[in-house]
Amino acid sequence: MFRRLLHLLFGLLLLSATALAEQRFPPPDFESGYQLPTPTTPAPRAGLMQYADVVVLLSALALALWLVYRTRSRRGITALSLFSLAYFGFYRKGCVCAIGSVQNVALALCDSHYALPVTVLIFFLAPLTVALFAGRAFCAAVCPQGAIQDLVLIKPLKVPAWLETPLGLIPYLFLGAGVCFAATGSGFLICRYDPLVPFFRFNGSELMIGLGVAFLLAGLFVGRPYCRFLCPYGALLRLATLAAKWRVRVTPDTCTQCALCQHSCPFGAMREPTGMQKREPLKTSRLRLATFLLLLPVLVGLGAWGGSQLATPASKFNRTVKLAGRYVRSLTTPDRFPMELQRVEANPGPVLAKAEEIRQQFLLGATLFGGWVGLVFGVKFISLCLRRNRTDFEPDPGTCFACARCFETCPSERIRRGWIPAELETARSKE
Amino acid sequence: MSTNPKEPVNRRNFLGAAARVAAMTGVGALLGKLAGATAAKGTVWQIDPAKCVRCGKCATACVLEQSAVKCVHAYAVCGYCELCTGYFGPEPNELTTAAENQLCPTAAIQRTYIEDPYYQYHIDEKLCIGCAKCVDGCNRYGNGSLFLQVRHDRCVNCNECAIARVCAGDAFVRVPVDQPYLLKTKPTTS
Amino acid sequence: MNLALINSGEAGARRTAKTWLITAWIAGLFCLAICATILYQHATATTNDPWKSPQLLKLKTALAAAPKDAQIKAQIRDLDLKYRQRFFRRLALDRTGGWLLLGGMAVFLAALWRAKNSDQVLSIPQPNLQAAREALRVEARSRLAVAGFAVVCVGAAAAFIKAGDSKMPLPQNPAAPPVPAAADALPPLAEFQANWPRFRGPDGSGFSPKANPPLAWDEGAKTNLLWKSAIPLPGFNSPIVWGGRVFLSGGDAQKREVYCFNAADGQLAWRRAIENVPGSPAKAPEVLEQTGVAAPTMATDGRRVYALFANGDLAALGLDGAPAWSKNLGTPKNQYGHATSLAIWQGKLIVQLDQGDSEPANSRLMAFDGATGKVVWEKPRKVPGSWASPIVVEAAGKAQIITAALPSLIAYDAVSGAELWKADVLEGEVAPSPILAGGLVCIASPSSKLIALRPDGSGDVTKTHVAWSNEENIPDVTSPTSNGELVFYVTSSGMLTCLDAKDGTKLWEHDFGTEIQASPGISGNRVYIVATDGHAWVVEAGREFKELGAGKLEDHFFASPAFVGDRLYLRGNAALYCIGVK
To answer: pLDDT by residue (tens digit) across A55-96?
Structure first.
């Protein structure tokens, strides 16, 4: 019996190359009354629950706005952060989040095959709309990635302003690259390189967990390193805050210019008053500004040209292009994992055509990306030449995460809230 | 709250308002463009068994340590063979459940005797790691009743599935959340 | 942070801080210990996982060499058990370790935070007199740093370009089809017309000007039958063809399925059961066996295929068979079973869902967005159940959807769904579908007359826009076909009639003397007529009857033929046939 079965097996082995998935062994007719079990299909999280996420998101945003602008409570912000971390982070495992939704939107705009779930669209738009009116309340207490970094910040060190400026450009570049990759259907870079999501899942690749640990360790001393120096959605929100109607103010009362708020801000977001003295000959600064204004189109053009050069190597990160390349190579040199090539070998035409199409898309995408990079640098140079006049200490709305730390250090604010009598504070500070 | 009410309408406020209007228009335009492409329902990831090439990457590429992809058994397709090529290795020492004969590295397939000469094969999902060894054996030499599926009780539904990114057969698809499985069914004609 | 702290003695504060600091140290060490344990477990995993262990693999090879060695077997069993247990212990450790780590981190952070705050004294910073100058310096440095960063970026980009050799080995393959348009654009009209995207071809009149299938075939003699593939489940819908794939649907009381065959070799490329459709009734509708649950022909826009079944299930699948969306439209109340096919227009799926036995009951015409399945518009229709399929024609400067049901032929604007015109010209059970013939809409009122209308009216055009009508040999089920110049139609008893499309005068008739249920089609200048018993005839599409060839297949045919390229696709009851020259 056993030998015969073995022979049968080897016979089938020879046949298997041509045979399709027909039933080689007819299902038996059981005589013992055996009932066929059916495979179980555990349900995914119900579709309705995603609307619960949206409700939580919107309520948390509203609550964050209330805490920042009305109660001005750091404690409330911390509590909401903890909740957001627990809900969007550990319960929802960090997916889908506003940061990643940028790519879904880009993909939906460029690929009609992809239907964008309406909840994802809300995750993308809600924080952005809030930022357009009232700054980064989302970052303050709703974003789980922001929350976890904010909570681990124990001993903030100042990042020198000259270093902060170029590092702060990285989010814009990351945003451009992420959108470019998503729009060409080449994958979600921003999700792939989100170092904090592995914590929410208690799982992840060695590389990403390592990166996450590095970010959190750095986060003990540098305030929110991911938010400031990498987060692409943060870049988008930063742009939105340029138009913000309401801005976070350290105190609604008079600023005594004590600079305590500037020291309390771990994110370098506080801008000091500019003072009255003349600082630089007007001619010099005007000349410089004119130079950089002229330089802007040059930078954009150079960037676009450079970007177009990136198209071909970058397109290799696309699976289809990579596969087509491997297939073409395999015609001359054997491939190491031929299994993946099977579906190309069966019918190479469409895959090669698709790869070529994607490469063309990359040419456009990378050129735009390069132009964007040039624009980012050009505009940064220009903004570094512009002078704004400030009479008080005030947070830069783009950089301010609305964490509410400065409120509690401001003497005017402490007096206003009745935490200390006015005399005591004055006395202590004189010591 | 934060703007000073006494502050007159200056250039900066005006620019801010203009930028806000422009940005809101942009958001509106985006909404308009996306109106046709949005769907009320979400999607989840699933493997199309017809495209799966059993490369084994499901076991290692998932963001979860024990993959969310597991083997599923379509009993109606199964031949209930005594010599199951999904259960036993290529040249089994004996047709018993002893460790040296089993193909499954985690002994996740339970073999039970039904009636002569038929055996039922059942996947213990707690043990299955989605390595596709049994799926390959069953599809290569048998009826193909074993196949891989994303199990949604485990899947965290990443925005971009880490396995889909490396799937050799390009078998991962986004499916509507209310039809989350692509199961194999019994062919009606042979 | 509160007043009490500031007022309490310095020593007390320092003591508290110290306690918290020690707590933080303990928690930190605890976290480190857990991390180390997990890391160690992972490091050893490469050799200790049951499927990776070199020791175990070696033993298995040894057993293959000495199959009878009981000692090796015992060793394998021991080792296998040990490694499996270790593997699952590791998984458990990772889970509990994760939570422990989280707890440890929380304590660590809380303690550090308290320690920091206990000895914090706020002091007003000295005013910085150099602030202005410093700001200037910082700005200058920032500009330099940004420039430096730009240089770094350029360097990184250069390295990136260099690392990926810019000559990707992807030559323009001459055999590859032309690059398709951007993914979101619908396929160009030419591609639409070169395929067979819906019931009775691109415009629904069964006419393909360019296709050139053979004139004769015979299954018995094996001439010109390229392939034949069994169709798993029955259905009376006709094949549709797109890009080298043939799509069909089939179903029975239990199951509804969509099939895709490779046009090249007839292999079943994929089959997809349409199940778990939200709102789908548990019980199959009662339909006549002659209709079945899969009578409506599918449609495709070149991006997705769409299928409708008699229970109201409407499903969209990608060309690769991946489900895109599905919904149930409610089981249409129809005494024979729903049979109206789907129409497609510019990425919109048009569904004519007439129902009610004699009284109108919730009949409606719907347009769905093909990508998402959202209803674009929906118009109620005051008509009872019908079996004719809608067509979309360009006439009078508009895209018009022409629908037929008792008692009216109604035209709708394809963009908005607004009713454009109607003509009360139909009687009986409306099964033949309308066609466009030389600029006129041509419809057979079953067994009574063939009417041609000018599609440029508005409102009720019954009296004003009838161009001509003819009452000879009118079919009851099959639809007419036309090449723009002539109109052909065939009755169930096998009588083929040819009319002039301009004025409706009869040119000739020919009796084949056998039952014919499939609508005829025209390919180039040839009319193809397929009889129920598998006989087929090819007749010249001319002003005089001339038989050009004949075909024979061993099957029964009800579906209309599809012409693509040099091929003819026929759906029989049991199989799908591809006729072409080898």
So the answer is: 999 999 999 999 999 999 999 999 999 999 999 999 998 888
pLDDT of C318 above 80: yes
Residue type (1 letter), C99: W
Nearest by CB: B178 against C88, C271, C278: C278
| Smallest CA–CA distance from B107 into chain C, residue | C84
B89-141 pLDDT tens trace: 888 888 889 888 999 999 999 999 998 889 999 999 999 999 999 999 999 88
Tell me which architecture the domain covering C189-579 has in CATH.
7 Propeller (2.130)
Residues A352 and C172: their CA atoms lie apart, in Å, by 8
Q: What is the DSSP string of A191-260?
A: HHT-SSHHHHHT---HHHHHHHHHHHHHHHHSS-HHHHHT-HHHHHHHHHHTT-SS---S-SS------H
Using only C-alpha atoms, chain C has a radius of gyration, in whole angstroms, of 37
The string of DSSP codes covering C390-453 is PEEEEETTEEEEEEE-SS-EEEEETTT--EEEEE----SS--SPPEEETTEEEEEETTTEEEEE
Q: Alpha-carbon distance A401 to A140, whole Å?
A: 5
* DSSP-based helix, strand, coil % in chain A, nearest 5: 65, 0, 35
Token pair of A52, please? 């619960």
Domain boundaries, chain C: 3-118, 189-579
pLDDT in tens, A230-245: 999 999 999 999 888 8
Q: Residue C115: exposed, middle, or buried by beta-carbon count in 10 A (0-12, 13-18, 19+)?
A: buried
A-chain CB neighbours of B143 within 8 Å are 21, 23-25, 27
Are A259 and C116 within 8 A, CB to CB? Answer: no
Do A61 and A137 contact (CB within 8 A), yes or no? yes
Q: Which residues of A345-378 are buried (b: 16+ CB within 10 A; e: fewer)?
A: eeebeebbbbbbbbbebbbbbbbbbbbbbbbbbb
C-beta atoms of C64 and B91 within 8 A: yes
Interchain CB contacts (distance < 8 Å): B and C:
83
Residue A245 contacts B, CB cutoff 8 Å: yes
Q: Which residues of A touch C116 (CB under 8 A)?
A: 154-155
Choose from C170, C245, C270, C276 for mutation: most chain A CBs within 10 A.
C170
Residue C239: name the closest of C203, C187, C201, C183 by CA: C201
Shortest distance, CA A35 to any CA of chain B (angstroms): 10
**CB burial class (10 A; 0-12, 13-18, 19+) of residue A70?**
exposed
Q: What is the pTM of this model?
A: 0.75
Task: Specify which residues A95 forms β-bridges with.
Answer: none
Q: B11 to chain A nearest CA, in Å? A: 13
Residue C67: CB atoms within 10 A of its CB come to: 13
pLDDT at A18 over 80: no
Q: Tokens 């040296």 — which residue? A: B100
Query: Does residue C500 sit in helix, strand or coil?
Result: strand
**Which parts of chain B register pLDDT below 70?**
1-9, 187-190
Distance CA C466, CA C477 (A): 22
Give the integer Cα–Cα distance in Å for A357 and A355: 5
List, as ranges, residues 157-216 from C with C-beta within 8 Å of A.
Answer: 157, 160-161, 163-173, 175-180, 182-185
Q: Does A104 touch chain B (CB under 8 A)?
A: yes
- Contact list in B for residue C81 (CB cut-off 8 A) is 99
Chain B touched by A254 (CB under 8 Å):
no
Alpha helices for A257-410 (secondary structure H): 260-264, 282-315, 319-330, 342-346, 348-385, 405-409
Smallest Cβ–Cβ distance between B66 and the set C50, C80, C91 belongs to: C91
Contact B189 C276 (CB under 8 A): no
Report chain A's terminal Cα–Cα distance, integer Å: 99
Tokens of C20: 């918290």
